[in-house]
Amino acid sequence: MRLEARRMKIGIVGGRLQGLEAVYLARKAGWETVVLDRESGVPAAGICDTFVQGDAVSERDLDAALGGVDLVLPALEDMPSLQSLLRWSLRKGIPAACDLEAFELSASKLASDRLFSKLGVPAPAPWPGCPFPVIAKPDRGSGSRGIRVFRSAEELETGIGRSGASEGWDIQEYLPGPSYSLEILGSPGSYRVLQVTDLFMDRSWDCKRVVAPTELEVPQVAAFEDLARTLAEGAGLRGLMDVEVILHDGRLKVLEIDARLPSQTPTTVFWSTGVNLVEMLAQLFLAPGQPTPGPPEAPPPGWPRGVVYEHIQVREGVLEVTGEHVMARAHALRLEEGFFGATEALTNYGAAGNEWVATLVVAAETRGEALARRERVITAILDRERIGLYRDLEPAP
Question: Digits of tens for pLDDT over the chain (397 positions)?
Fold first, then answer.
């Protein structure tokens, strides 16, 4: 089922990275988009149809911005705002694409770890029952904010606090290896999994690049899908969840879950498979009780395609491939086709002088061809902009 009887109007609350992803995919579905955010100049403001500066905890602001929408899609992680938004949507009879209980569970890394343990899901061993090095993450917060690695008890005690207290931190064994992501959508007893994507991190563990299709072998993909279904059922998910794993010593281990619309991977999946996750999410909440929407059992000829999705920053004569945090701070973003040979780009190139950012989408028939085309795009930028230095850094060993 596609929502094409008339033009859908979707209200997206939050205009940063999740909101940017939501607007982008809603546009691909041909929908009208309204974005509400407390701050002006957020990244999604430049590509939505209507932007309203307002607060999700204000009923007046919600009425003014979202009164005529068909669906509300939360794209923020502030619990008071989410609670206010869901109360408002219930009063107005406008569906909100959110499972608040699953979100609250996944928003705490410590609570998520307890779920992994309860379900017997393979995950990194918790400290102090593991050797050093260890990786410490704030219990709450998305992306790479606050992540640190400690190589000894002395470093850990100094870094977390002189008392060594670990309250508010999720501390686990540090496992080297490639990372992968998978989205799962539906309700208990009826879930659909999407495409596995390969993740690449910058030096601060922020995701800088997503590539599809995955290099995981077919049995590993099947094992990953089984893990995702186990986690969705265990969390009682009614909506959408993103699952991130690491492959260490030939075994997949779950790093984290997020019961919300993620950024980066849905656009990669869209360009690789043609499946629009925001459209699927809307169908799920606008037609409750119906079978969970999903991609076709067999992909059409020519799919999946090869896709490279990555973020770059240009400043002071340097082009650096970097994590998505640079896009969260960007203003005046626009969508541009054929940008330096890329399929598409979200960028503020030309609007901020010699300092600019871009999210590049490069698609081709195969993964190898997409990677080769991506190299040509980077070379074109370096040559035409006369940039002398290129960086593509990874986390330190």
Answer: 444 556 899 999 999 999 999 999 999 999 999 999 999 999 999 999 999 999 999 999 999 999 999 999 999 999 999 999 999 999 999 999 999 999 999 999 999 999 999 999 999 999 999 999 999 988 887 766 778 889 998 988 888 864 445 568 999 999 999 999 999 999 999 999 999 999 999 998 999 999 999 999 999 999 999 999 999 999 999 999 999 999 999 999 999 999 999 999 999 999 999 999 999 999 999 988 777 776 666 667 778 999 999 999 999 999 999 999 999 989 889 999 999 999 999 999 987 678 999 999 999 999 999 999 999 999 999 999 999 999 999 987 7
Q: d(Cα 102, Cα 290) in Å, to the nearest integer?
A: 21
Residues 85 and 153 in one domain: no
For 384, the 3-state DSSP assignment is: helix
Please tell me whether residues 204 and 257 are part of one structural domain.
yes
Biggest CA-to-CA distance, the chain: 63
Is residue 86 one of the residues assigned to a domain? yes
Q: Write the CATH number for 240.
A: 3.30.470.20
Strands 207-212 and 169-173: unpaired
**Residue 228 belongs to domain spanning:** 176-286
Is residue 220 a part of any domain in this protein?
A: yes
* Domain endpoint, select from 173, 190, 205: 173
With respect to residue 117, please indicate whether it lies within any of the assigned structural domains: no
Q: Which of 59, 73, 60, 56 is nearest to 9 (CA)?
A: 73
Peptide bond into 213 cis (omega under 30): yes
Q: What angle do CA 385, 387, 388 make, to 5 degrees?
A: 155
Which of 51, 80, 98 corresponds to the end of one domain? Answer: 98
Residue 385 lies in a domain: yes
- Cα 14 from Cα 16, distance rounded (Å): 6
**CB neighbours (10 Å) of residue 175?**
19
**Residue 60 burial class via C-beta count within 10 angstroms: exposed 0-12, middle 13-18, buried 19 and up:** exposed
The CATH number linked to 22 is: 3.40.50.720
CA 128 to chain centre: 30
**CA 229 – CA 31 distance, rounded (Å):** 30
Closest CA to 281 of 194, 190, 183, 185: 185
The answer to whether residues 273 and 311 belong to one domain is no
